[in-house]
Amino acid sequence: MQRITMLWFQGKSVQLAQYSFQLLLRNLSASKTALPVLTLFTKDTCPLCDEAKEVLEPYKNRFILQEVDITLPENSVWYERYKFDIPVFHLNGQFLMMHRVNISKLEKQLQKLEQQGAGG
Hints:
By secondary structure, the protein is of the alpha+beta class. 36% of the residues lie in helices and 31% in strands.
């Protein structure tokens, strides 16, 4: 079995790790299965957004959370659209929910994407 040796510096010590080539390949191929992107449209001082992020915590390994601050000048289109509705969520660029996290809706859409990603 081929082995890969890696050296890296951590603080003042040198760390050494060996990985089997098969394990490395398995991890690389698993990382090709991209996680869906859950976009949170938010702004500073948004208690509902903070609450939503807490509700999402148990699901965080199933998506990449991308936060968009709608008050930034480059996000003015989103500000005009969502200024009275945050938090708003899009999943892979498609509107999903607003105001509060709907766990059953999120779960249904994540399962659908996961089945598609698994070839089902």
